[in-house]
Design brief:
Length: 126
């Protein structure tokens, strides 16, 4: 069951879009503004069910976030989904090679996010 989603993105607008899409699942959303903030929030929310991760952010980018999460090893059960802009396919491929379980291209449609959630939590999408 999808109860908690960690959103790691430096864009306030993207955070608002996630909130609008995810409210139908009645899950808690934990916001982080960069990779380091995401690691800090993940440590406080180890029960997260899904991580939605931007690649290009200040302080720590999404690829470095994935490396750190994999080094820690205690969050391997949480699917990481990359959210990347057009033209950044090489970063997306690197993220998938590092262990991300899927990706969505920005700008995304709500249906793109619903399809991804259904992949990991099929009972959630109706």
């Amino acid at each position: 069951m999808l109860k908690k989603v960690l959103v790691v993105d430096d864009s306030a607008l993207i955070h608002q879009m996630y909130k609008m899409v995810l409210m139908r699942y009645k899950c808690q959303i934990v916001d982080a503004l960069n990779g380091q903030d995401g690691l800090d929030k993940l440590a406080k929310n180890p029960d997260a069910d899904l991580i939605l991760l931007d690649i290009n952010m200040p302080v720590m980018n999404g690829l470095d976030f994935i490396k750190k999460v994999k080094e820690l090893g205690s969050y391997d059960h949480i699917p990481i989904v990359l959210v990347s802009t057009e033209g950044k396919e090489e970063d997306t491929m690197r993220g998938l090679a590092l262990g991300a379980k899927g990706y969505v291209k920005k700008p995304f449609q709500p249906s793109d996010l619903h399809q991804l959630i259904e992949k990991f939590y099929p009972a959630e999408v109706k």
